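Minutes, structural biology subgroup

Action item carried over from last meeting: produce the structure token record for Restriction endonuclease (Bacteroides xylanisolvens). EB confirmed the sequence was re-checked against the source entry. Recorded below for completeness.
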Amino acid sequence: MKNKCTIIEAAKKVLSTTNGFMSVTEIYTQILEHSLYVFHAQDPISVLRGELRSHSVGIDFPTASSKKYFFYDESQRRFRLLGSENRTVRKNGKEQVSLRTVREMHHEYVDAFRLKILNQLKCLNPYEFEKFCMNLLEVYGFIDLSVTQKSRDGGIDGFGKLKIGLAYMNVAFQCKRWNTGVVARKEIDAFRGAIQGEYEQGIFFTTSSFTKEAMNYSIKQGAVPVILIDGNMIVDFMIEKQFGIEHENLPIYINALDQILS
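Output recorded by EB:
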């Protein structure tokens, strides 16, 4: 049977029916139910996933397509349509971009930008990520910061001090640059055990995320508190402090002539 459209065209038709995200399996199921495409591969879901990723903003690899139609939410592993088909309206035969469209485009740009920054952090080697975390803490007022030597880290990647009132609090930090998987409670417990008795607070960085159990036990009565900072929070901090990030203020003009003529 000859297909009337490509895999990407079929996926776009499915995603155009919703404003939200869909998983690869959900998209695949809808494609089959509506007979939009017939897959002949042994693992059609993997083929579909590869095509979707190739055409998603913020995902760059050597064979990725330059044409982008989708946005990929890495934390949920779900896709949505960028909605480029509806970005313009016509007036007097000319295309005009609406204010609502500009806002939607900005939202899409920010989502893609955040994902790109997070992917760049995941590409750092472990030592570079430790140095990055140390420099980020310095921006937030930590002093006397240092990254430990690998042979002597004892489960601690770095340490420093933070002034609280008239006193200084000794702080240690751990850095996990992970591309896949989530940080479990055992990692938090091991880090806490390494700093107990010598430091008043621990900070655990990861480019990934934390399990619910890890988050529940980060603050434990009678034990050193451990602040958990995942990949999305790191990007938030970078944007807040403009740390490794620059921004431009682009003015958006809104017609308010009627207000001065009324």
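Discussion: The chain is about 40% helix and 20% strand.
Next step: EB to file the record with the rest of the batch.
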